[in-house]
Design brief:
Blueprint: E1 14-19, E2 27-29, E3 38-40, H1 49-60, E4 64-69, H2 70-73, H3 77-86, E5 91-94, H4 101-115, E6 119-122, H5 124-128, E7 145-147, H6 152-164, E8 174-177, E9 183-185, E10 220-223, E11 226-227, H7 238-242, E12 247-248, H8 251-264, E13 269-272, H9 281-293, E14 299-304, H10 311-319, E15 322-330, H11 334-340, H12 348-360, E16 364-371, H13 378-391, E17 395-400, H14 408-413, H15 438-453, H16 456-462, H17 466-478
Parallel strand pairs: 1-4, 1-5, 5-6, 6-7, 10-13, 13-14, 14-15, 15-16, 16-17
Antiparallel strand pairs: 2-3, 7-8, 8-9, 11-12
Helix pairs in contact: 1-6, 3-4, 8-9, 9-10, 13-15
């Protein structure tokens, strides 16, 4: 192990990393939307893979780590608090999301009061809006520190300071409060240059059989084989969390993880969580060759952009077990595509052929679409609805355009206005634009779902999978549920 991940602490610390419970109204998957989180189908439960990466770095440094995943354990805030306190840790770090932040903060405060140990929060919302977290003081404080950006090495250094009884001055990537109440925002931490130096995520700390995906039989897990995205879409949180530069793990390193999860943990279904999985086609081809050579009977899916696929790669991916690809469509309007969406669909005929090629090779597709861009009119939104009907993917997802803190879109729209982070579910429109009200944007999203799924040919296809259809219907009726 390199010195980056194998430092010896002055004394080991017992650490609890926490994925807090979802709000009662809907399930939140905190790793989505670049760590801002998103309300999801209640039948979807991803592992807190970011915490597993942090845990592996901490274990390599000699610490004892526990991961408490409240959703996997089916615990509410009271149950989560009891489970954390029972571990008697010396340090606690909680993940967070925009829409669950008020509840996450409440749990953090209760943990801090109960244990009298340092408590930290991580996640994109707190990274880009840290000031709102440091309220009160002393017993009333919610957290001692906020971990900004890529968390692995920042959490490790934070724990080393806790172990040595030192203050947090100079820990890059950290915001913290001095005893006199002063809030200190340390400089940003550089992104991890060589991802192969990271140990494999600590799946032995997770209940790997608990995680699931709608329509998939058996346990699933997630894998992050790269970080960063060069497209810089105006709304995207992934570039904030991971940067614009594409950083990738080698095919050999990714294969080590796939072999581990398959042969050690018995998981057969994988969702790659890379923003654009096929950015480097040669790397993906090598991963596919490795899956085949290792005889890993995996079924897997990924997210990517149409412009980074061709039929040869699609065929190789299918042979290696790829069963589903989610593709960013975002908007059917050419100007919005150029201004906000990385111009992913510069050639609509080629894009349509990619969807057809996936079907020819037995790979299901999902189109990600968005409604409510700043300049978007109702007729522009209709271009998106027509385009997705033309592409005819197996599934479609419509989201309300959301100005997450730190994104270019946020800078365009926000000004001095304050948005309610609890409304950042991915499906609620926080406010309208100059052409459509928030209610009209949400109505257009509902119209998009109805138009796509109620076509006669579409209904016939959906009826072949009644269980999956029931899940889609349930999700439709929970998309716009408000927090209490």
């Amino acid at each position: 192990m390199t010195s980056h991940c194998g430092q010896t602490p002055s004394k080991p610390v017992k650490i609890v990393l926490v994925n807090p419970p979802s709000p009662p109204e809907f399930r939140v998957s905190r790793g989505l939307m670049g760590g801002f989180g998103m309300a999801v189908n209640p039948g979807l439960l991803y592992p807190p893979i970011e915490l597993a990466h942090v845990a592996s770095v901490l274990e390599a440094a000699g610490h004892q780590v526990v991961i408490h995943d409240s959703d996997a354990a089916d615990t509410d805030v009271d149950g989560a608090l009891a489970a954390i306190v029972a571990e008697s840790p010396g340090f606690v770090c909680l993940d967070s999301s925009s829409t669950s932040l008020d509840q996450d903060r409440t749990l953090a405060q209760r943990v801090r009061r109960a244990l009298k140990v340092p408590v930290a929060l991580l996640g994109s919302q707190v990274t880009y809006a840290p000031e709102s977290i440091f309220e009160g003081g002393g017993e009333g404080a919610e957290v001692d520190a906020i971990v900004r950006g890529e968390p692995e090495f920042t959490v490790r250094e934070l724990v080393e300071r806790v172990a040595a009884g030192r203050d947090l001055a100079g820990v890059a990537g950290l915001s913290w409060r001095r005893p006199n109440g002063e809030i200190v925002h340390e400089p940003e931490r550089e992104k991890i240059e060589h991802l192969d130096e990271l140990p494999l995520p600590a799946r032995h700390l997770l209940d790997n059989q608990a995680y699931r995906f709608p329509g998939v039989e058996g346990a699933i897990t997630t894998v992050k084989s790269s970080r960063g995205c060069p497209l810089n879409c105006s709304f995207c949180g992934y570039t904030l969390a991971q940067g614009l530069r594409f950083r990738f793990r080698s095919p050999e390193h990714v294969l080590r993880e796939l072999v581990d999860l398959y042969r050690v943990h018995g998981v057969r279904h994988v969702i790659f969580r890379d923003p654009i999985f096929t950015t480097r086609k040669d790397r993906v081809a090598a991963i596919c060759d490795g899956i085949i050579a290792e005889k890993l009977d995996l079924e897997w899916q990924c997210e990517t952009a149409v412009k980074t696929l061709d039929e040869g790669l699609i065929a190789k991916m299918a042979k290696a077990g790829c069963r589903h690809i989610s593709l960013g469509v975002e908007s059917g309007n050419a100007e919005i595509q150029k201004k906000h969406c990385g111009n992913k669909l510069s050639d609509l005929d080629k894009a349509e052929e990619v969807f057809k090629a996936c079907r020819r090779h037995g790979i299901e597709t999902r189109a990600f679409c968005m409604i409510g861009f700043p300049e978007e009119t109702s007729s522009m939104a209709d271009e998106t609805l027509r385009l997705v009907e033309r592409f005819d993917p197996d599934q479609v997802q419509f989201c309300a355009v959301t100005a997450y803190p730190g994104t270019p879109l946020h800078k365009m729209l926000r000004g001095t206005r304050e948005f309610d982070h609890a409304s950042m579910t991915g499906f609620q429109a926080l406010e309208g634009n100059e052409h459509m009200s928030a209610a009209e944007i949400e109505a257009k999203i509902r119209e998009g779902y109805r138009r796509f799924y109620l076509r006669p040919r579409r209904i016939a296809r959906e009826l072949r999978h009644p269980g999956r259809l029931a899940g889609k219907v349930a999700r439709y009726f929970t998309l716009f549920r408000r927090r209490a």
